[in-house]
Design a protein that fits this description.
Shape: globular
Mean pLDDT: 85
Number of strands: 0
Largest sheet: none
Radius of gyration: 20 Å
Order of helices and strands: HHHHHHH
Distance between the termini: 14 Å
Helix content: over 70%
Strand content: under 5%
Number of helices: 7
Low-confidence stretches: none
């Protein structure tokens, strides 16, 4: 797990930068522990408020993700405790802790895979990278991508398939080099 680089001297700017850097990961983490997207949104908002309130306790240069994960796990557990008071609660605290521990265990591997994918995406020709961004980051449909790229729908399907295959091989090679 990587240590977070030193943040700027202004705590507000440092907080905003760190949250922006880890926002997607944090959202994925919370969503993976909560069954409802609406509940996950509420918890995520509370996690960010709590992190801001406790930001003075964060030691710059240490692992922000680990610090944020601890706060997020506590918020999810608090949410689950409140849910238990309601009759329809099905997930127990032990389950959350097991899933959180498993996510922690896999975090390093996922970080390395993410870094490898980022490296591989940078190697793609710009036109291919645009297709990946449209499809997987902007959630465009294949028809939209065909229109944007001036290709047929079939050509977009084939090209996306080749790009996914190429990225998969590249990530495997990157992972083999770093392991």
């Amino acid at each position: 797990m990587d240590a977070t680089p030193l943040p700027p001297a202004d705590p507000t700017e440092a907080y905003v930068r760190l949250v922006a850097q880890h926002d997607r990961w944090l959202a994925t983490y919370v969503y993976s522990l909560v069954g409802s997207a609406a509940d996950a949104d509420d918890i995520l908002q509370e996690v960010k408020v709590t992190m801001w309130r406790q930001f003075r306790q964060f030691e710059s240069g240490t692992n922000f993700r680990a610090w944020a994960r601890t706060i997020a796990t506590h918020q999810v557990l608090n949410y689950r405790r409140a849910e238990k008071k309601r009759p329809a609660s099905a997930v127990d605290e032990q389950f959350i802790e097991i899933v959180a521990a498993e996510l922690d265990r896999r975090a390093d591997l996922l970080d390395r895979q993410s870094a490898a994918l980022k490296t591989c995406l940078a190697k793609l020709p710009e036109a291919h990278r645009n297709l990946v961004v449209w499809r997987y980051y902007e959630d465009c449909g294949v028809e939209q991508i065909a229109e944007k790229s001036r290709r047929s729908v079939e050509a977009v399907y084939r090209l996306l398939s080749r790009i996914r295959h190429s990225l998969g091989e590249c990530v495997s090679r990157q992972m083999a080099r770093t392991h």
